[in-house]
Amino acid sequence: MGSSGERKSSDTLRINKPASATGDGSSIGVSGGNSAPSPDINNLCPIRFRIKLTRQDVSVGRTLALEGNILVAPNIGEVGKLNARVTKRLETCLGLGISYTTITTVIDQGIYYAEFSQ
């Protein structure tokens, strides 16, 4: 697929954990019948994603905090709000053991975003 044996500096190593088997152990195999397929962790919990901010006066690179579904910048206050879909995504990823430990502000084409990173 490529002739180079070196990784790009922007590449990130990611190891997906297999879904844990549930049940009482009496069934043969991992699947227990009517179980739903496990979600694709790479699509559900990307390495980083962005949410548009409501305020445009936040300095770039500033660390943000998440209080419920409100994005807060220290000494500024509320700078954005998460919708229900993003809140559910974060809760699901946290349940899978994946957390977004860093939330910083970035600008892309003049628009301010909160970037969530693992």
Question: How is this structure best summarized?
Answer:
With 118 residues, the chain is an alpha+beta fold. The protein has helices at residues 41-44, 84-95, and strands spanning 48-52, 65-67, 70-73, 77-81, 102-108, 111-117.
Secondary-structure map with pairings?
Layout: H1 41-44, E1 48-52, E2 65-67, E3 70-73, E4 77-81, H2 84-95, E5 102-108, E6 111-117
Antiparallel strand pairs: 1-6, 2-3, 3-4, 5-6
What does this structure look like?
There is one protein chain. This protein is of the alpha+beta class and about 120 residues long. Helix content is about 15%, strand content about 25%. It has two helices and six strands. It has a three-stranded antiparallel β-sheet, with no helix packed on it. Strands 2-3-4 form a three-stranded antiparallel β-sheet, with no helix packed on it.
Give the beta-strand count.
6
What oligomeric state do these chains adopt?
single chain
- The average pLDDT value, as a whole number, equals 83
Approximate helicity band: 10-25%
Biggest pleated-sheet summary: 3 strands, antiparallel
Features:
three-stranded antiparallel beta sheet; 14% helix; alpha+beta; 2 helices; 118 residues; 6 strands
